[in-house]
Design a protein that fits this description.
Strands 4-3-2-5-6-7 form a six-stranded mixed sheet. By secondary structure, it is of the alpha/beta class. The chain is built from eight helices and eleven strands. The two termini are about 15 Å apart.
C-alpha cells in the first residue's frame, strides 16, 4: 500500500503588507524559502510601502474566525506564527482558537510598531495580550520597544533585558526571545529566557544596511518554519538567526522603492519535501 504523505505546514496570522516586505507576505516567503507549506489568516490590511504606512484597516472578527476555521478544520498545521493582532477582540479570538484546536507550537511576534515608526495596534491591546496569550504560547519574540511595552520596564542596556524577561515570566510567559537589534553594539545579540533554565545568547554580525523592513516578521517566521520541520526551540532559533542574517546580507545593496527595502528571502530556497502523514 502506498504511504500517505503531506507537506510540513505552518500558519501565519498577521496583517497584509502591500509593499511585500513584512507581514503575511514576508511570512509566506520565509515559510516557502525554508521548505514549509504556508497557510495564512489576514487580520488587517495595510496600505504601505518602503517609506511608511499610509492606512490600516482592521478586518472583522467574523472573517478572521472564518479564515482560521477554514484552515484548521482541513489542514494539519505543525506550527503557528502570529504577527499583527491589532485589537483586544482579535487577540481573544486567537487565544480561543489556540485552545479549541489544541495548537501546541505557537510563536508570537508582538507586532506593535512598524520599522518606519508607525503604530500598528492600539495601546489598549497590551493588557489583553498579556492576559490572553502569555500562558498559551511556545515563544514570544519582542524587539526592545515591544519588550518595554509588554513588561513596563525601560531597556537601555543588556541587563535591562533580564529585568524585562523576569517581569514577563512573572506574568505567565514561559519562553521569551528578546531581540537586541535596536542596540548599537558591534554584534546583534538576542537572548532566550526560559523559566528554570539559564539564558541562551544568539549573536550575529551587525549588517549596515537600510534594507531591514520586515526583519522581525521574517525572523519569527523562520523560527516557526524550523519548528514545523521538527527542530527543538533552541535549534530553531539558531537556524532562524542564521537565515535572517543571510537574508539581510543578500539584500543589503538592492534598491526596492525609495525607503527601507526588504531582505532577500530567497537567497537559497529549500525544496518543499513531503513527510509521512500523521
Amino acid at each position: 500500500m502506498k504511504k500517505e504523505v503531506r507537506y510540513p505546514s505552518a500558519l501565519t496570522i498577521a496583517g497584509s503588507d502591500s509593499g511585500g516586505g513584512a507581514g503575511i507576505q514576508a511570512d509566506l516567503k520565509t515559510f516557502s524559502a525554508i521548505g514549509v507549506y504556508g497557510t495564512s489568516v489576514i487580520t488587517s490590511i495595510t496600505a504601505q510601502n518602503t517609506q511608511g504606512v499610509r492606512k490600516v484597516e482592521v478586518l472583522s472578527s467574523e472573517i478572521i474566525q472564518a479564515q482560521l476555521e477554514a484552515v484548521l478544520d482541513d489542514i494539519r498545521i505543525d506550527a503557528v506564527k502570529t504577527g499583527m493582532l491589532p485589537t483586544p477582540e482579535i487577540i481573544k479570538l486567537v487565544s480561543s482558537v489556540i485552545n479549541h484546536y489544541k495548537l501546541k507550537t505557537v510563536i508570537i511576534d508582538p507586532v506593535m510598531v512598524a520599522t518606519t515608526g508607525a503604530r500598528l495596534s492600539a495601546a489598549s491591546t497590551v493588557d489583553t495580550f498579556r492576559k490572553e496569550l502569555f500562558s498559551r504560547i511556545t515563544l514570544l519574540t519582542p524587539n526592545i520597544p515591544e519588550a518595554e511595552a509588554l513588561s513596563g520596564i525601560s531597556i537601555t542596556e543588556e541587563k535591562d533585558m533580564y529585568k524585562a524577561a523576569d517581569k514577563m515570566m512573572e506574568m505567565g510567559c514561559k519562553s521569551i526571545l528578546i531581540k537586541g537589534g535596536h542596540f548599537t553594539t558591534t554584534n546583534s545579540t538576542d537572548i532566550l529566557f526560559r523559566m528554570d533554565q539559564p539564558p541562551v545568547r544568539f549573536s550575529a554580525q551587525r549588517i549596515h544596511t537600510g534594507n531591514v523592513h520586515g526583519t522581525g516578521c521574517t525572523f519569527a517566521s523562520a523560527i516557526t518554519a524550523y519548528m514545523a520541520l521538527g527542530n527543538k526551540l533552541e535549534e530553531a532559533i539558531e537556524k532562524g538567526k542564521k537565515y535572517i542574517e543571510n537574508a539581510i546580507i543578500a539584500g543589503a545593496d538592492i534598491i526596492t522603492g525609495k525607503g527601507a527595502g526588504p531582505v532577500n528571502h530567497f537567497f537559497c530556497p529549500e525544496i518543499l519535501k513531503p513527510v509521512n502523514k500523521k
